[in-house]
Structures are given as structure tokens and as C-alpha cells.
Amino acid sequence: MSPISLIRPISQLKPAIPAVxxxxxxxxxxxxxxxxxxxxxxxxxxxxALGIARERVALMVNGDVVKRAELDATPxxxxxxxxxITMVGGG
Length: 91
Fold this sequence. Notes:
Elements: E1 25-30, E2 33-38, H1 43-50, E3 57-61, E4 64-66, E5 81-86
Parallel strand pairs: 1-5
Antiparallel strand pairs: 1-2, 3-4, 3-5
């Protein structure tokens, strides 16, 4: 078979099957309230999903303080308890 016989018009090609991207659903207890979160894999992802700026909070996962520099490297697992503590200024 010659290489030229392998060439087909675009109209004869079968469409590619789209890749299926799995969606991760995780159940977390955040500040005492259980909820499900989509595509949250790390503590940093959770803050993003909640719309919270990481510069203004402290975070605990299962009673352990998470350093701000480690938010994106701290994995969350189904059933974890997370406390988000916001900083409040005043005088």
C-alpha cells in the first residue's frame, strides 16, 4: 500500500471521540457546615471555590494549621473538616 492511498478527504474521516473529564465531588465540613464541592483538590482550591482571598484568612484542616505558602500543596480528602478564620480589623 502506498502512502498516497492512506490520504483521505476530511469528509471521510470519523470525528474524534471527545475526552471525558471526570468531575471530582468532595464532601467537606467547612466552619461546621457540611457541603459538596466540585473539583476541589487542595486547600487553595477550596478558598478559590468559596471566593475568599487567601491573604486575609487562616485555615485549619482537621485541626492542623495550614501555612499560607502550603495552601496549594495541602490536599483535601472526602470528609475533612476545614475551619476558615477571617481576619477582622478594628480598634
